[in-house]
Amino acid sequence: MIYLATSLFTAAEQAFAAALTAEIEGLGFAVYYPWRDAGDEALMAAWGEDWTRINAEIARRNLRAIERCSSVVAVVEGADVDSGVAMELGYARALAKPIKLLRTDWRTQGPRVGPVNIMLGMAAAELFTSIAALLAGLHGATEPGGESAVIPVADFYDRVAAEYSDGALHPTTHSFKSAEEAATAELLAGRRFRAALDLGCGDGNFLDHVAADEKTGVDGSVEMIRRHRQRVPEASFLLADCQRPLPLAPAAFDVVHCSFVLDHLTDAGACLREMRRLVAADGIVLLAVYSPALFLGQNDSESEEDVLRYRTASGGVLSVWRSFRDLADLSAQLAALFRIEQRRTVKIGAGDLSFDHYVLRP
After folding, report:
1. Which strand ranges, in their side-by-side order, compose the sheet holding 71-75?
2. Could you tell me the CA-to-CA distances from 182 to 7, 18, 156, 188, 193 in Å, in that order?
3. What is the mean pLDDT of the chain?
4. Residue 24: how many CB atoms within 10 A of its CB?
5. One domain for residues 133 and 228
6. Which of 93, 124, 141 is the last residue before a domain boundary?
7. What per-residue confidence (pLDDT) applies to 146?
8. Which end of the chain lies in a sparser environment, N or C, as judged by fewer CB atoms within 10 Å?
9. Is 152 domain-assigned?
10. Each residue of 265-312: pLDDT tens digit?
């Protein structure tokens, strides 16, 4: 994912940034564009004019996106760079993120300093003087390490978001999702909730189908959230890691949903504890996981056991971290936090594939 750092105070700046985002996405990259992806409108709808709270959350989301991105593209026009952009670049530099600058302004600060402040020039790997040159510099670039390297989970979902739910391209994934959605719909039929939360919401249908006065989705993928927001505009979305404490009030949700997420987490227990914190005393948790027993011991190599190799529609292969080691005793972990009201194994097709579906109570 590329983080686009740019001043966004004027209509002209916003239009330029939106067009540049579209150009970069046209090359196949996921882009975090703060004006679009930080969720400003949703936050104002939820919190009114509580600007301290809204601004702090926008800043948190932007910093989180910088932490996750593979590189930063920064627009550095004018006599001096925008202060917000300077802060974003400093944070990115501290995290050793590759930085590319775009400056179409032909003015310079003289022969000694050059077109930009010397600190920015030192921080950036490259400076481009036209959009065409920037796009040429990005064209053909890949995530660090190439496709054979194991990429972060959020980056993986950014890259496959456009095809992930296509049943013709990925029938097995589609079968799991469809079966889980059917099982969940059966449990929720005829019920309405005060507040619904989907942890690892992806581009799934839970928030679309659940009857609730308030809906919130949490995911680490910018692209999945962007697509989800288009389908469920009334929901609020949070770009966050569900293994860390979320900026959500305790016991705020009377239904919490999480499907096919735990195997991608390095600390599934932290996510389970966060579910327990967030569900209301009279609430319900719906959890779906690929049946761990089917995946444990599949490979001779321990390292191979922790990698999912995913063939994309273009024929490439993406490798992403996945492990079922910590889920072998999942029922015991759940029993320590919840009352297990129901557990059933749902078969997928005629083969050996299945997932475990839990109904949990505080």
Report:
1. 31-32, 2-5, 71-75, 99-102, 126-128
2. 45, 38, 26, 10, 18
3. 86
4. 20
5. no
6. 141
7. 43
8. C
9. no
10. 989 999 999 999 999 999 999 999 998 887 775 544 444 457 888 888
Total number of domains in the chain: 2
Which helix (H) or strand (E) element contains residue 172? helix 171-188
Task: Verify that 116 and 246 share a domain, yes or no.
Answer: no
Domain check: are 227 and 328 in the same one?
Answer: yes
Give a yes or no: residue 119 inside a domain: yes
Contact 304, 277 (CB under 8 A): no
- Domain harbouring 103, CATH code: 3.40.50.450
Contact 150, 307 (CB under 8 A): yes
Q: Which of 90, 124, 141 is the last residue of a domain?
A: 141
Asked if residue 198 lies in contact with residue 218, where contact means CB atoms within 8 angstroms, the answer is: yes
The 3-state DSSP class for residue 38 equals coil
C-alpha angle 120-63-234 in degrees, rounded to nearest 5: 135
Instruction: Provide the β-strand partners of residue 239.
Output: 219
Separation CA 141–CA 100 (nearest Å): 13
- The count of other CB atoms within 10 Å of the CB of residue 201 is 28
27 C-beta neighbours (distance < 10 Å), count:
14
Q: How far apart, in whole angstroms, are the C-alpha atoms of residue 286 and residue 21?
A: 36
Rounded CA separation 157/141 (Å): 18
What is the C-alpha to C-alpha distance for residues 222 and 37, in angstroms, rounded to an integer? 7
Assigned domain for 146 exists? no
Q: Assess whether 231 and 346 both reside in one domain.
A: yes
Q: How do beta strands 279-290 and 354-361 pair?
A: antiparallel
Q: 225 with 85, same domain?
A: no
Q: Looking at the structure, do residues 134 and 8 belong to the same domain, yes or no?
A: yes
Rounded to an integer, what distance in angstroms lies between the CA atom of residue 228 and that of residue 167? 17
Q: What is the three-class DSSP state of 215?
A: strand
Report the DSSP beta bridge partners of residue 99. 72
Say what the pLDDT of residue 38 is: 85
Residue 14, both tokens? 């916003």
**Do 203 and 133 share a domain, yes or no?**
no
pLDDT digits (tens, 9 = 90+) for 66-110: 988 888 999 988 777 888 899 998 999 898 888 898 888 877 666
Which domain does 197 fall in, by range? 171-361
Euclidean distance between CA atoms 237 and 202, whole angstroms? 11
Q: Is residue 346 part of a domain?
A: yes
